[in-house]
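sry for the spam today, last one i promise. struct tokens for design, 430 residues
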């Protein structure tokens, strides 16, 4: 691994919190993700299952975690299964986890080979009163490809049709929304790495540079600083591309007079940063670009102050919409007549700002959460208002990462340049 392992106490604490939520007699099962075939005998880079990692600290394929608080079978309250290693596997793929190393990383005392999984699972299933299965429960998850968790769930339902099966998703969403100190530290490290990459990028961007060269700069900086790599596919969008919300081709030339919108974030110890900055390719904002930029910055600063314990996330997004509407009126993009006649279900500002402002951040860049729960201390959100003016080829989005606390919002990205003057100063350093 490229990063320093997080303390095993974090994962023990996470398992303890989940165990306290499970009813008596419950067996919870968690599988790692599959290795995804690419072509021939090659695979895409492995990405752990976030829930399994959250509970174990293990990000190796073919890993299984069983949790059975109060198990009648002594010593089987927590069982971790890892794939058996061999001289051949080590020769081809490098060192694999041994039971001793998996024990140190996870804090799970009983670590066994996956060869022993089936008979132990059968015994524990017959001792349990209900089984909690881990499924893909993100609001926006939709895939024709079944995950390992889904396949194993189907097999279990077929083999044990009378078993009382429950969902672990709601329990884990509630737990993962609230970040521990160790998790915030990991996110902060990912943010710091991302911020340093942004500093380096500002010193190489100039008219004629290609978007993919900018992406190469951020990738090199991430890896040099010990990040896993990108937390998600980066957006490097110049000119009119800045108005395409999920632009990832990153292959155009950055031209004099263009803006360059970059939405990117490092992944450190499997925790994500999510930053967006918009800069002038030639190092100086035009008068119009600056006016729109400062409007977005004002909206962001006001929005951050709304991320407080007890706030309602849906009402928060509506209030941000009103802030954007006010700025669009000042910029001459909306007029009072349009605002007065607008459909409340489709407000006029959405022509220029059509996405949400905040989402949970953690192990996943769009971390799971309970959408209709009130905001609580310990949650980490992005804050990313924007204004997109396609006819003017101006797309400006600014995104910071915010920790909610009882004493007010804490901006984890506060040290990353965002003011117009700071960006221009960095871009024009000799």
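last one done:
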């Amino acid at each position: 691994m490229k990063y320093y392992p997080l303390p095993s106490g974090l994962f023990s604490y996470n398992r303890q919190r989940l165990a306290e939520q499970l009813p008596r007699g419950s067996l919870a099962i968690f599988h790692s993700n599959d290795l995804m075939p690419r072509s021939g005998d090659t695979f895409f880079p492995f990405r752990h299952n976030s829930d399994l990692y959250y509970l174990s600290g293990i990000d190796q394929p073919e890993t299984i975690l069983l949790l059975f608080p109060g198990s009648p079978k002594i010593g089987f309250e927590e069982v971790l299964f890892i794939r058996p290693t061999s001289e051949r596997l080590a020769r081809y793929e490098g060192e694999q986890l041994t039971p001793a190393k998996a024990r140190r990383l996870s804090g799970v005392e009983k670590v066994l080979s996956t060869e022993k999984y089936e008979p132990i699972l059968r015994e524990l299933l017959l001792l349990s009163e209900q089984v909690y299965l881990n499924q893909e429960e993100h609001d926006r998850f939709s895939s024709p490809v079944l995950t390992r968790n889904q396949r194993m769930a189907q097999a279990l339902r077929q083999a044990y049709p009378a078993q009382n099966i429950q969902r672990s998703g709601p329990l884990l969403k509630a737990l993962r929304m609230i970040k521990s100190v160790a998790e915030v530290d990991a996110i902060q490290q990912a943010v710091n790495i991302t911020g340093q990459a942004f500093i380096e990028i500002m010193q190489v961007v100039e008219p004629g540079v290609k978007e993919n060269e900018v992406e190469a700069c951020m990738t090199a900086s991430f890896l040099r600083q010990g990040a896993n790599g990108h937390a998600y596919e980066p957006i490097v969008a110049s000119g009119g591309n800045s108005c395409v919300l999920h632009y990832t081709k990153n292959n155009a030339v950055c031209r004099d007079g263009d803006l360059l919108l970059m939405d990117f974030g490092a992944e450190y110890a499997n925790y994500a940063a999510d930053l967006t900055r918009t800069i002038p390719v030639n190092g100086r904002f035009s008068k119009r670009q600056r006016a729109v930029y400062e409007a977005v910055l004002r909206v962001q600063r006001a929005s951050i102050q709304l991320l407080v314990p007890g706030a309602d996330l849906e009402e928060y997004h509506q209030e941000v919409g009103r802030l954007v509407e006010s700025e669009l009126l000042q910029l001459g993009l909306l007029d009072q007549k349009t605002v007065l006649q607008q459909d409340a279900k489709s407000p006029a500002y959405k022509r220029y700002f059509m996405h949400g402002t905040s989402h949970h951040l953690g192990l996943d860049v769009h971390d799971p959460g309970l959408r209709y729960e009130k905001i609580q201390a310990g949650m980490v959100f992005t804050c990313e208002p924007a204004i997109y003016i396609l006819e003017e080829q101006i797309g400006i989005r600014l995104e910071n990462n915010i920790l909610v606390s009882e004493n007010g919002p804490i901006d984890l990205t506060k040290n990353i340049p965002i003011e117009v003057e700071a960006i221009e100063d960095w871009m024009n350093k000799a």
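Residues 384 and 399 are 4 Å apart (CA to CA). ok im logging off now
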